[in-house]
Amino acid sequence: MSSFSGWAVVDLSDGRDPGEFVGALCESCKDTLRVMAEGRRVYVYADYAPDFPSTMARLVPHWADRAITAADYDEFGVLNEVLGPDAESVHLASITEDSAAPLPANDTPETRRAAAVLFDADPALLDEVSATWSKDGALPGCLGEPYLRWWAALGAPGPRTSATAPSTPGRPPKASRDPRTGSGPRNGR
After folding, report:
1. Region Disordered: which residues (predicted)?
2. Are the C-beta atoms of 40 and 12 separated by less than 8 Å?
């Protein structure tokens, strides 16, 4: 199974209607979208959407106070980015699986602090995710792993009805089998 996808959690500005935002998103993005709104927070999953983070970056200044975007490039790696109200990149973390085409990153203590301030989160949780999130690699084929660990640390763990449960920061993802080796528990044990 391919995990090639784009993800976002968007905290809309006061007075912005989630339905109108979704309409603008659908006009801007021709990929298959799954959207869920919880108050002013909108969660988006875009199937096979390599340009989804840039689409979100174009929309954020007009609609939102902050956002987190993620791009899963399957076996090539993953990106997770925190955007401020003007869509400026506050924090960018990546796992590159293809050394010939490294993905950009700006994961420093300073950028983690800035992301924590933006989301009123505990910076120690972001430090923990930073220290542990790439140990298992990009986990191709596992939707939502590993970047949802960043989201949980920022207090945006994913919609309550999400099919992909986020991991607790610092713990391995909940997967029945390691997608790279096929090893793991059998028969759900």
Report:
1. 158-189
2. yes
Q: Which two tokens stand for residue 103?
A: 């993905």
What does the block give as tokens for 88? 């400026």
Alpha helices, DSSP H, located in the chain: 18-28, 52-63, 109-119, 123-132, 148-153
The residues facing 36 across adjacent strands are 43
Which tokens in the block code for residue 98?
A: 């293809």
- The total of other beta-carbon atoms located within 10 Å of residue 49's CB is 22
> What pLDDT score does 88 carry?
95
The answer to whether 59 touches 25, Cβ cutoff 8 Å, is yes
Q: What confidence score (pLDDT) does residue 121 get?
A: 97
User: How much is the pTM?
Assistant: 0.77
Residue 71: the pLDDT is 85
Helices and strands counted in the chain (H then E) = 5, 6
Domains and CATH numbers, the chain: 5-153 (3.30.70.260)
Look at residue 64 and give its three-state secondary structure: strand
